[in-house]
Amino acid sequence: MSEVLILHHLSLIPNGATLSLVVSAGQSLTIVGPSRSGKTSLLRLLAGQGRPQEGYVSIQGSVAFATAFASRKPKVGSLAKFQGHQGRSSRITELLLATRLWDRRTDSLADLSDSELAAAELLGPLSQDSNLLLIDGQLDRLDPWVFRSVMAVLGEKMNQGTAVVAVTNRPDVIKELGTLVVLSDYAIKFAGSVVDLLRHGPNHEVTVKTKNQPGVRALVEPFRVSVQPCEDGIRFFAPEGQDLVAHLLREGYGDIEFITLKQPTIEEALSRLI
Question: Which of 125, 177, 185, 190 lies 20 to 30 A from 97 at CA?
Answer without folding.
Answer: 177
